[in-house]
Write a structure and sequence with these properties.
By secondary structure, this protein is mainly β. The protein has helices at residues 284-288, 371-375, 473-476, 486-493, and strands at 9-11, 17-19, 30-32, 196-198, 214-216, 236-241, 256-261, 291-300, 303-314, 318-323, 329-333, 339-343, 351-359, 364-368, 377-378, 386-391, 398-401, 407-412, 421-430, 433-434, 440-441. The strands form eight sheets. Strands 13, 15, 16 and 19 form a four-stranded antiparallel beta sheet that branches. Mean pLDDT is 83; it is low at 474-480.
Length: 494
């Protein structure tokens, strides 16, 4: 400025007043120029305007009664300049609260560094209490940035929707970039959790080793929906990848509820109870009572067509790898290289089988069963050893005797003394087994035992939240125009 060195304040004939300068900006009623700003006459200080007040007062208050055709600002702060030096910060508006809030629970006080409130009337327009925007087109630009140093449940940013009905949202994030993220949560601790989500008015749970996200719900912890129905690649609800796999991820072209990828296990299922189905109760609720590592079902109109339990405790602690309707199959190539199906034989009892060869010596032979096979079968009056002999030479015929858990004798009929070879096959009931919890899996007693039906199911309602003009924030937010400089603001106010 060109004022005298001892000049402090100038009141213009038109009414505006300016402190520590000669000419205010157009539109300024009262302005103060601090040290270092263009136009300042003297170095009086770097805090241009300060307001101090006692209890129940307001240090600085701003209000705008903007007309419907203008954009009004109650308080506006901007920081000009060409750059911010390294290891420093440029702040347009800074709010600080150094009080210690008193009380606890519902009586607790709240200390605000910055508080924004909007009481716009109901309608389709967007009402914003606090708005943050970063105009930078490169680098790490933040519209709103929150930090807490509290190690007792501190929160950097809080969003609350207090309405008890309607589609109220506590925090909403949106991006128009294909590689952008609408919401991103990062925990920089080696055992940190990226995000915690809780529903049904519950507290949250998380793994102490950390995870990308932790979700807690009463009946459903996490719900994920893949909406694509395109023939070239339909929707997948969840894709889970383990072992830091960086290979290409494949999903079925028909879509899937869950796709699991891992170097060792794609999907694992655990049942932490030891509930058994009831062999005397063959109904739908019976299957629900079973403990199983996994359950799979094909439905038609909500009715099970086929189902399979995997790793299930069935019929009073009997253990089964897989049980369900249908057949047990494998796939092999035919003579033309086309893949075809082969089916496994199944029986009403639990049998083990073994095969071997032997030879009569002077009309007699003893076959000793493999000790591993013998250890895992039961042979007694109720469960005899079944032996089948196929002669491979001319003799008077043979019979089998002295059958035990460990072997049997083959003797030629009518005192014959032949030396012919033969092939044998044995079938025996599987021996019972002691489970790790001390219960007994009674394999030997089973014959056409009741089977578990499909599990009982509860139908859950799915409600879609549509993207309508009323809820599409992308349409409304760009309409908020913030002048880049004070000169531009003055131009707009003319």
């Amino acid at each position: 400025g060109s004022g005298a060195t001892n000049e402090r304040m100038r009141v213009l004939a038109t009414g505006p007043a300016v402190y520590n300068s000669t000419t205010p900006f157009a539109g300024d009623v009262f302005s103060v120029y601090g040290t270092g700003y263009t136009g300042a006459i003297n170095a009086l200080g770097t805090f241009a305007v300060n307001g101090y007040v006692g209890a129940n007062g307001i240090g600085v208050y701003g209000e705008s009664n903007s007309a419907t055709t203008n954009t009004g600002y109650g308080v506006w702060g901007t920081l000009l300049g060409t750059q911010t030096p390294a290891n420093s910060a440029s702040i347009g508006v800074l709010g600080s609260n150094n009080t210690a809030p008193q009380g606890a629970g519902v009586t607790a006080a709240t200390a605000y560094g910055v508080y924004g409130q909007a009481t716009g009337a109901a309608g389709t327009a967007l009402t914003v209490g606090t708005f943050g925007r970063a105009f930078s087109t490169s680098g790490s630009a933040y519209g709103v940035y929150g930090v807490t140093n509290s190690n007792a449940g501190g929160i950097g940013v809080v969003g609350l929707a207090t309405a008890t009905s309607g589609a109220a949202t506590g925090v909403y994030g949106q991006t128009a970039s294909a590689t952008g993220l609408a919401v991103r949560g990062v925990n920089t601790h080696a055992s940190g959790t990226g995000g915690l989500f809780s529903g049904n008015n519950l507290g949250g749970s998380y793994l102490t080793i950390g995870s990308g996200a932790a979700a807690t719900g009463d009946r459903v912890g996490l719900y994920a929906l893949g909406t694509s129905t395109a023939a070239a690649g339909q929707g997948v609800g969840v894709v889970g990848v383990g072992n830091n796999s960086t290979t290409t991820i494949y999903i079925p072209t028909t879509g899937a509820g869950v796709v699991g990828v891992g170097q060792y296990y794609g999907v694992m299922g655990f049942a932490t109870t030891t509930v058994n189905t009831d062999p005397l109760n063959n109904n739908g609720a019976n299957g629900t009572s079973a403990s199983a590592g996994g359950y799979f079902e094909v439905q038609s109109g909500g009715t099970a067509q086929t189902w399979a339990y995997v790793a299930v405790r069935d019929n009073t602690a009997t253990l089964r790898k897989i049980i369900g309707p249908g057949t047990v199959n494998t796939i092999v190539p035919d003579v033309n290289g086309k893949l075809v199906t082969m089916s496994a034989p199944e029986a009403p009892e639990n049998f083990f089988q073994d095969y071997g060869t032997g030879q009569l010596v002077n009309g007699r032979a003893h076959i000793t069963l493999d000790p591993i096979f013998a250890k895992n079968i039961v042979v007694n009056q109720e469960h005899p050893l079944r032996v089948f002999i196929q002669l491979e030479g001319d003799c008077k015929g043979v019979y089998v005797t002295n059958k035990t858990q460990y072997g049997f004798d083959v003797i030629e009929l009518n005192g014959g003394t032949s030396n012919v070879p033969f092939t044998w096959m044995v079938t025996a009931n599987r021996a019972d087994e002691v489970n790790p919890d001390g219960t007994i899996a009674k394999y030997s007693a089973e014959r056409f035992v009741p089977a578990p039906l499909p599990v009982s199911k509860n139908k859950l309602e799915v409600k879609e939240v549509p993207r309508t003009p009323e809820s599409d924030y992308e349409v409304k937010v760009p309409n908020v125009s913030v002048p880049a400089t004070k000169e531009e603001l003055a131009k707009n106010n003319k």
